[in-house]
Amino acid sequence: MTLETRPASDYPLPDLVNHLNLSFEDYIVPVQFNLPQFLTILRKDSLDLQESRVLLADGNPAGIALIARRGWTSRLAAMGIMKAMRSRGSGSWFMGRLLQEARERGDHEMELEVIEQNEPAVRLYQKAGFRTIRRLIGFVHQAAKQAAKNDLHEVDLREMGGLILKYGLPDLPWQLSGETIALLNPPARAYQKGSAYAVISSPEAVHIVIWSLLVEPGARGSGLAVDMLNSLMANHVGKTWHVPAIWPEEFGKIFTQAGFQREEISQWQMKISL
Ligand SMILES: CC(C)(COP(=O)(O)OP(=O)(O)OC[C@H]1O[C@@H](n2cnc3c(N)ncnc32)[C@H](O)[C@@H]1OP(=O)(O)O)[C@@H](O)C(=O)NCCC(=O)NCCS
What is the pLDDT of residues 129-139, one digit of tens each? Predict the structure, then answer.
């Protein structure tokens, strides 16, 4: 079997979506990408299609790796091998190639997130030299109806991205980083209440995702984050609130205190120095 790679930019976008779906067949959580979702992650997560790769086995598509880039850092945003080709060493070969290319283009580090329960993927990344930074967890909450207080002030998402860069953890997972949040647009929203801030997906939808929660450093330790969560829920009644499993475990207590339930799936945030 001959393995080789081609730049993802050689392919029409619908073909890439198709390769992605085939490469994530029977994934631990069912995923089915469509073109609009692909275009959204392309823009928001800084995917570089010229550096992303389609894996070919004897000339036929056998897998895909999506690479995002910012400055010296790249992120393996997705990697999958088509079902019939798994467990035959192709993933390991592909990963070696991706790391070599990252070194050659001058990247200093590569990061990724992997579902903790996805044993083949965790093994693959550990074997390639990735080290765990922290566990990432998620929550869900079906909030009871509460009276709206209208005590939130809306801020520009671009400005919010700047605040996260200034005050947030320096090694936040890619999707929670200030750079990513600054690229969100309405109908997503950023809110401020005193020294506390939050970012949510469209409040018009029944299911709302919390993308950011931030308290200015001088105001930490006095319950403002939990208060912000309660205000969000009071201002948007009857919604189901989701915290995707990309939140640093150290934030967990805040969500539990606001009545959120922990999701079963968790991830490892991993990094390799190149
Ligand atoms: C994860 C994935 C990319 C690995 O690709 P692959 O071609 O199967 O990988 P390899 O054959 O090179 O094996 C890599 C490691 O996983 C282990 N592995 C492979 N299949 C396994 C299985 N079914 N169960 C447990 N471990 C397995 C191998 O033993 C190997 O580790 P080792 O060398 O220490 O023994 C592939 O399984 C896949 O595409 N899965 C679906 C999508 C996915 O989960 N992507 C990762 C998202 S972060």
Answer: 999 999 999 99
Q: Is 48 helix (H, G, I), strand (E, B) or coil?
A: coil
**How far is 7 from 16, CA to CA, in rounded Å?**
11
Q: What is the pLDDT of residues 185-244, one digit of tens each?
A: 999 999 999 999 999 999 999 999 999 999 999 999 999 999 999 999 999 988 999 999
Q: Which CATH class is domain 3-107?
A: alpha beta
- Whole-Å CA distances, 246 to 100, 234, 263, 264, 274: 27, 24, 11, 13, 23
Q: How far is the CA of 120 from the centre of ligand 1 (A)?
A: 3
Rounded Cα distance, 221 and 76, in Å:
34
CA distance 150 to 129: 49
Stated as kind and residue range, the H or E segment containing 179 is helix 178-182
Pairing label, strands 153-155, 131-142: unpaired
**CA-angle at 228, arms to 252 and 215, nearest 5°:** 75
Q: At what angle do helices 119-128 and 90-104 cross, to 10 degrees?
A: 40
Over 80: is that where the pLDDT of 59 sits? yes
pLDDT higher than 80, residue 147? no
Distance 130 CA to ligand 1 centre (A): 15
pLDDT digits (tens, 9 = 90+) for 72-107: 999 999 999 999 999 999 999 999 999 999 999 999
List, by residue range, all CATH 3.40.630.30 domains of the chain: 3-107, 138-269
Given CATH 3.30.460.10, say whether it is the number of domain 138-269: no
Residue having the nearest C-alpha atom to atom 7 of ligand 1: 91
Residue whose CB lies within 8 A of the most ligand 1 atoms, among 23, 27, 28, 81, for a mutation test: 81
The CA 117 to ligand 1 mean position distance, Å, reads 12
